[in-house]
Every structure is written in C-alpha cells, then in structure tokens.
Design brief:
The structure holds 2 protein chains of 2 kinds. Chain A is of the alpha/beta class. Chain A has helices at 2-16, 18-31, 42-61, 74-90, 94-102, 105-115, 120-163, 185-202, 219-234, 246-255, 267-277, 285-290, and strands at 168-171, 174-180, 206-213, 238-242. Chain A contains 12 helices and 4 strands, in the order αααααααββαβαβααα. The longest helix of chain A is centred in the middle third of the chain and has 44 residues, at 120-163. Chain B is of the alpha/beta class. Chain B has a 5-stranded mixed sheet, with helices on both faces.
Chain lengths: 291, 129
C-alpha cells in the first residue's frame, strides 16, 4: 500500500514543487561552498541541477523506484554519468562528485516533511524510498567518476610514452633517439616501432641511441636496448649508443652485461662517427677555404 | 611445384620473395640457391624480403642457414627490405641473424655486394665472421 502511494505521489509532488525544490537545493549547495573553488560557474550548476530534478521527476514517474537499472532511469543515469565524468576531468574529488547527487536529499526530505507532516508513517516511507534511490544514484556517480579518472590517467600515460620517444633526424641518413626515463617492455615496443618506421621513412643508415636520460641500466634495460639494436640491424641500419654516464658504465660492467655495440660517451662523438660512416665530414670554415 | 625464381646478375644472384613462404618452399629455395651459387660461381646473394609479411622461427632460421651455406661456397648473403614488423618479430623470437648482412633496400644491398666484389669493405661496421 505504501509503495502504491509513493508511486502516485512522488512525481506529482516533485512536479508541483519543482521550482521551490530547485531554489532550495541551489541555496544549500551554495551554502556548502560548491561555487567557492571557482571551477564551476553558477549558471552551470543551475543548469545541471535543473536537468537533474527534471530527469528525476521523469524517472520516478516510471514507477519502479527500487531498480535504477530499469529503462525509465536511462536518462538520469546518463546525466549522472555525464556530470560525474565532467567533474573528474575538472579535477574534483570523488566525494564532491557524489555529493552533487546526495545533497538533493536535504531539500527533498524537507519537502516531504512539510507535505506529509501529519502522517509520519507515510512520510517515513517516502523518505526511505527516496533515500535508497539517491544513494544508488550517488554510487552510480562514483563509478562514473572513477571511469572518468581512469580515462584521464590512461590518456596521460599515452601522452607520456609518445612524448618521451621522439626520433629525430640529425643528418641525411643519421637518426637520433634520445631516450628519457626507464625502458620497460611496453616502452621498448613503442621505441622500436618508432625507430624502425623512421628508418624506413628516411632511409637512415645510422641511428644513435642516446641514453643520457635513462636513470639506471640494469640487465633488463640492457636487454631491451640490445633488442632494439638487433631489430634496427635487421633493417640494415647500424646503431651507436651514446650518453653513457660514468656510474652507468660501472653498473654495466659490474652486472656483467655485454653490450656488443659501438658506444660513445657523448652524442657529439657518436654523431662524428655517424658522419664518418655516412661519408661526410665537418670541418671549420677556415680550414675548408684553405683546402 | 611452385618455386622462387633466382636471377643471375653478373657475379651475384638476386632472389625476390614475393609469396608467403611455407616450409617446403623454403627448403626448395635452399637447394636451388646452393646449386646456382656453385653453377655460376656467384660471389654475392641478394635476398629481397620486402614483400614478406609473416615470418616464423623456421623461415628465420632458414635465412640464417642460407647465409651460412653461401659463405661456405664463398658468396656473401645480404638480406634487404625487411619490414619493421618482421624485424620486431624475429628479434622477439630471439633470431637476430648475426651472420647475415642486412640493408634497407635492394640498391643499398647491391652497393654492399659490389663493395665486396671490388675487394673493399663498405665500411659500415659489419664483418661477417
């Protein structure tokens, strides 16, 4: 009987008091300091709140209040996801994202209190139903928020790996690959693919792998380096390693790693050797004139 | 039976692999190539694999074997035109074809062979052992 009453009354109740509910909600959110961070505009919050209350009314009108996966809750679920994911991208915390949904409880319960003041039993039933419903929507917001965050992290990871593996052309037939950061299997794959593709594109004969930016070289990193070098050799390009810091040279020897490849201390030395191999030399202008 | 053509160009042989290699075809190539090297007394073998999209460990080892056999018959093998994906696969399989010379394309490969025929090393740092 209580459920029947809820179904009949709630949509009508929300519809009748929609403007009041909205004003009250906005006032409470503002009092809680939602606008203080400056990341959200008043108009934006107002618009989101209006859409939410409207979607809630329509969803409640569908009848089934216990299952938010029901079809009538489709629009409000999407709205909650949209708002939570946006909050995640704007850098809000998870509780701030969920609070948006949960904060509707207070004005809504106040409204029910005012309407059913004379009938505590029915008021209680309404409050309980709505409480459960908003909790579920709040959790849904949390999940969407988390997905939004994961999306942000994934994109950043991609960007980092793209940024940190540039292949630059130093000279006709000479490529340089300045490695920054630790080489793990996933990055080695990206580095290798980039390098090999550039070898095909530019027809390079020599590639200089500069490891100045690699913090440590252990056996695994060395193995990854050797794989890259072997793959480049199969494509007909010769690899030189440069930028080996003194500590790294010591580590390599202590670990007993065999880097059977031409290595130079600095990129400048490697470049000079690369030029020599490709049949060019660099001489001072004066010397060139005399010659 | 399908066979891979072997073209004679002066003192060297040119093999262009245009179809997907299967094991029997690879064995036939080994036979034909060694026979040709002996018959023409070739000094260089150029294998163009730019059309090869898929390699497995067998084909990888076959390339290595061909190089070794040619060397015994006093001809140098240069493998040219390997695709990036193929190179990565071979390395992941642990086959880095240490005894095989490589070049980016046929032109570069011919330069390598010509340099050897002229008795001068191309000077790119590869010395087949």
């Amino acid at each position: 009987m209580a459920t029947h009453a809820v179904v009949v009354d709630l949509p009508r109740l929300i519809e009748r008091h929609e403007p009041k509910l909205l004003t009250e909600w906005l006032r409470l959110m503002e009092a809680a300091g939602i606008l203080q961070s400056g990341r959200l505009g008043r108009a934006e919050v107002e618009q989101q709140s209006r859409r939410f209350v409207e979607a809630l009314r329509k969803a409640v009108a569908g009848g089934n209040l216990s299952d938010i996966r029901a079809g009538s809750f489709g629009p409000i679920r999407e709205l909650v996801e949209e708002i939570a994911e946006e909050r995640a991208k704007q850098g809000f915390s998870a509780s701030e994202a969920a609070t948006f949904v949960l904060s509707l409880k207070e004005p809504l319960f106040n409204l029910i209190g005012a309407e059913f003041g004379g009938d505590p039993k029915q008021a209680m039933a309404h409050v309980w139903t709505l409480n459960l419903l908003l909790d579920k929507l709040g959790l849904h917001a949390m999940e969407a928020y988390q997905r939004g965050r994961e999306e942000v992290i994934r994109r950043q990871q991609e960007e980092i790996s793209e940024l940190s593996t540039p292949v630059v052309q130093l000279w006709d037939g000479v490529l340089a690959l300045p490695l920054i950061g630790t080489l793990d299997s996933a990055r080695t794959q990206v580095v290798m693919e980039n390098l090999l593709q550039r070898i095909v594109d530019t027809g390079a004969e020599v590639a200089i792998i500069d490891i100045t930016g690699v913090p440590t070289v252990d056996t695994l990193v060395a193995q990854h380096l050797l794989k890259t070098i072997a793959a480049a050799r199969l494509m007909g390009a010769d690899c030189l390693i440069s930028g080996i810091r003194p500590q790294i040279a010591q580590t390599i020897v202590h670990l007993g790693v065999e880097l059977n490849v031409v290595s130079k201390a600095t990129m400048a030395d490697a470049f000079a050797l690369a030029l020599q191999r490709t049949g060019s030399i660099v001489v001072p202008k004066a010397a060139a004139k005399q010659a | 039976m399908e066979r891979i053509p072997i073209l004679k160009m002066g003192e060297s042989l040119l093999v262009t692999i245009q179809v997907d290699m299967h094991d029997r075809l690879a064995m036939a190539l080994q036979d034909d190539l060694t026979a040709h090297i002996v018959k023409h007394r070739s000094k260089g073998v150029l294998i163009d694999i730019s059309a090869l999209e898929i390699v497995d460990s067998f084909i990888g080892r076959m390339l290595d074997n061909i190089a070794t056999m040619s060397r015994i018959l006093d001809a140098e093998t240069v493998v040219v035109g390997m695709r990036p994906a193929v190179a990565i696969t071979l390395v992941e399989l642990g086959l880095s074809l240490k005894g095989v010379r490589t070049a980016l394309n046929v032109e570069r490969g011919m330069d390598l062979i010509r340099a050897r025929l002229n008795g001068a090393d191309a000077g790119n740092g590869y010395h087949s052992v």
